[in-house]
Design goal:
This protein has five helices and three strands; from the N terminus they run αβββαααα. The chain has 160 residues and is mainly alpha-helical. It has a domain of 82 residues: Aspartate Aminotransferase, domain 1, CATH 3.90.1150. The longest helix has 16 residues. It is extended.
Length: 160
């Protein structure tokens, strides 16, 4: 695996984004920041400018970028076992489910791990149908979390 270069060509990355990424997956503003490094709540762009990242709570950066304990534990885990499907047992998966069962209210003793919000929503719908014995659901138009991208991909919404 190659190391991250000290100098990144922001223009080449932007051109590559336009060429190789779906339009709906590209940044939605004209001059996107090319982040090359991060630590805690700070990020740096390709020109070396420092920013405060007020958006870092998305996905797995809720403790900040490159938190030393998180980095150490990730390195340790991927050194032993990387990503696997929930089709296989792992000690960490069962231990996390056990811990959740200890703090969950009432009879909530089982966990279903998902990889995305969409998968979580789909699972919640299936579980609700199983629990109630019904097959009908109520959905709001454009209520799906990713509808913005779906409309853009279909050419119905242009982002400026």
């Amino acid at each position: 695996m190659s190391a991250i270069p000290d100098v990144v060509d922001a223009g080449a990355v932007a051109a590559g984004s336009r060429e190789f990424l779906f339009k709906c997956a590209q940044p939605s503003y004209a001059d996107p920041i090319l982040m090359v490094r991060a630590e805690g709540a700070k990020v740096w762009d390709a020109a070396g400018r420092e920013y405060l990242d007020f958006f870092s709570g998305i996905l797995t950066t809720s403790v900040g970028h490159c938190h030393p304990e998180v980095v150490e534990r990730v390195r340790d885990q991927v050194g032993r076992l990387g990503h696997t499907s929930t089709l296989y047992l792992t000690e960490n998966q069962v231990e996390m489910a056990r811990r959740l069962a200890e703090i969950a209210p009432g009879r909530l003793q089982q966990t279903f791990f998902t990889n995305s919000g969409t998968e979580a929503i789909e699972t919640a719908i299936v579980l609700a149908c199983m629990y109630t014995g019904r097959s009908e659901i109520i959905a709001l138009r454009y209520g799906l979390r990713c509808m913005h991208h779906v409309r853009q991909a279909r050419g119905r919404e242009e982002i400026k």
